């Protein structure tokens, strides 16, 4: 049995808008280093949403820890903060400008969740598969064979069904010569 060591990266920060962009760049660089470039967009989107929730909702302060861990065929991204209140996923109104973050994380990830962290905190996490899902190709449709018709020569152009013009007239030049 071959075992692969886990890869782990941790960043502690204040969840302020300027820091969220920095963490997104750190996550992107780490995934490039691990040769997981196809996961960068989804991991960056997910960590941005989770950090935005800390910025918007966490009390008493905005201190948090972002962890990314690669274990076998799963990338887990988690955000730990000091607020014990669990997030609630609500259906956002159609014209609402916020309230869709966790639903978006759920949609773009393989799985996600939240768990208490000690007596005064929580961890919100999501996972992404590192290998693309196996997609079976649809069955090939049978190809129709095309019957080749010999090209007609200039003298073989016939009349059209309406009798007014030939059905395949050769091109004619309007230039004298």
Shape: globular
Beta-strand content: 15-25%
Low-confidence segments: none
Quaternary organisation of the protein chains: single chain
Structural class: alpha+beta
Describe the structure.
The chain is α+β, with helices and mostly antiparallel strands and 177 residues long. Helices cover 24% and strands 22% of the residues. The chain is built from 3 helices and 5 strands, in the order βααββαββ. It has helices spanning 17-33, 40-57, 101-108; strands at 7-14, 63-71, 74-81, 111-116, 122-129. The chain has a 5-stranded antiparallel β-sheet, covered by helices on one side. β2 and β3 form a beta hairpin. The longest helix is centred in the first third of the chain and has 18 residues, at 40-57. The termini are far apart. The mean pLDDT is 81.
Features:
177 residues; alpha+beta; five-stranded antiparallel beta sheet; 3 helices; 5 strands; 24% helix
List the helices and strands and how they pair.
Layout: E1 7-14, H1 17-33, H2 40-57, E2 63-71, E3 74-81, H3 101-108, E4 111-116, E5 122-129
Antiparallel strand pairs: 1-2, 2-3, 3-5, 4-5
Helix pairs in contact: 1-2, 2-3
Summarize the structure.
With 177 residues, the protein is α+β, with helices and mostly antiparallel strands.
């Amino acid at each position: 049995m071959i075992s692969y060591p886990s890869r782990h990266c941790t960043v502690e920060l204040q969840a302020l808008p300027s820091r969220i962009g920095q963490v997104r760049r750190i996550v992107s660089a780490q995934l490039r280093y691990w040769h997981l470039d196809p996961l960068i967009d989804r991991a960056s989107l997910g960590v941005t949403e989770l950090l935005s929730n800390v910025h918007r909702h966490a009390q008493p302060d905005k201190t948090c820890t972002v962890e990314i861990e690669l274990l076998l065929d799963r990338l887990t991204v988690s955000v730990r903060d000091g607020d014990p209140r669990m997030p609630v996923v609500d259906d956002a109104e159609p014209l609402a400008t916020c309230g869709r973050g966790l639903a978006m994380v759920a949609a773009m990830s393989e799985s996600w969740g939240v768990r208490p962290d000690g007596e005064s905190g929580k961890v919100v996490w999501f996972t992404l598969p590192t290998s693309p899902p196996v997609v079976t190709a649809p069955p090939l449709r049978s190809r129709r064979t095309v019957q080749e018709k010999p090209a007609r020569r200039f003298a073989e152009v016939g009349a059209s069904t309406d009798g007014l013009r030939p059905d395949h007239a050769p091109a004619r030049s309007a230039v004298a010569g």
